[in-house]
Amino acid sequence: MAAQDTATAPGGARPYQIIVWGATGYTGRLVCERLATEYQGKCRWAMAGRNEGKLRAVRNDLEKIDARCKDVPLIIADAEDQASIDKMVAQTEVIIATAGPFALCGECIVDASVRMGTHYCDVTGETPWVRGIIRKYHDAAKDRGVNIVPFCGQDSVPSDIGAWFVVNHMKTKLGRKCARVEGVITKLKAGLSGGTLKTISLMVSKDSAVIADPYCLDPPESRRGSDGPDQICPAYQKELGVWTGPFLGGGFNTRVVRRSNALLGHVYGDDFKYTESWSQGSWLKACMLTLLVMFVMSYFKSRFLQWLFGRWAPKPGEGPSREERSKGLWEFCMVGVTQEEAGAKPTIVKATVGDPHDPYTSTAIMVVESALCMSMEQDGLKKAGVMRGGVLTPATAMGPVLLDRLRNAGVTIALQEPGTEAQ
């Protein structure tokens, strides 16, 4: 099927349920592979980008997964041509945006989605960019009932849905509010893509003040809690009995969880706190991790260090090979503690959130399931009472419906200890 051809849609619906924007990039290809492997013939979807030759090459590769992929439509759209973006977005119920850095090429998709009434999800971890999107588009999207949902990849679905899961268990099963949750990385084997490195470099060099604000994604009028700066030094996690070091992903995951709490009216707890860290085997290893993180941050702030070491870093469009990804995995332990109450000690709730895939493969799984939530699960979302319209988070836009879909896709989200008294 030629580029820009449209599919036949039943009952006057839009031609596509999902369009993958940025399909030729590293993450975009993985998203398309996920759709080809699990959902070819089950949903109407198309691939979009600015280079028809590269799109055809991706489609040729997808045919090896499922021969029916030869009919996946290709749509040519360029971020510098808003008319082509508008035409693309108007054809689908949900757009999956994978082309970054989003600060450079993402706003045109959000703008079109709000105007065209198209739900949107992406794989960004760019908190400064999302902060700007919130301030510019939240009210308009809310008025039009359009869901704009960033952070739908491995950043930051595990943190956001995991924290919501623990807090919801406390509320519904224990009848308690939550004082704090800490997401502790207990397993992580992963590589980095060139796109991720470019994005981090752009954020650190231009938006360090925004990144440092622990509540930068909260509504401007929202009250602030007592969460402070992200962990930068070794610390002992007493509920797990382990030494931890800083986790770079916490710089955006924590902000997403705090926005979920704020959007829901601070129902998680009276002064709910959320932090993230990385479990290490000893105090010495936690110190070594701290030094490594300090070097990484210096690398992204220094053009000299990037020039000196950048030759060994992956370039945009490059990333871990299929073999390297096959060895990847990750796991969080979500440690929650209830608020103190008269006559009742605080209760600890522990949950596991993990996947036997590397973070990039998990990202493809999570953003596809997020898009399918908004396209195919409207009745379930309405029944669940989740929020509708605005720049939302995975937990506030999809909550229990996304949780169920992720479990069905093989992601672990389960209680370890449903409630033990804190010592």
Automatic annotation (TrEMBL):
InterPro entries tied to this protein: NAD(P)-bd_dom_sf, Saccharopine_DH-like_oxidrdct, Sacchrp_dh_NADP-bd
Domain Saccharopine dehydrogenase NADP binding: 18-149
Gene Ontology CC: lipid droplet; mitochondrion; plasma membrane
One Gene Ontology term from the biological process aspect of the record: glycolipid biosynthetic process
Membership in a protein family: Belongs to the saccharopine dehydrogenase family.
Name this polypeptide is given: Saccharopine dehydrogenase NADP binding domain-containing protein
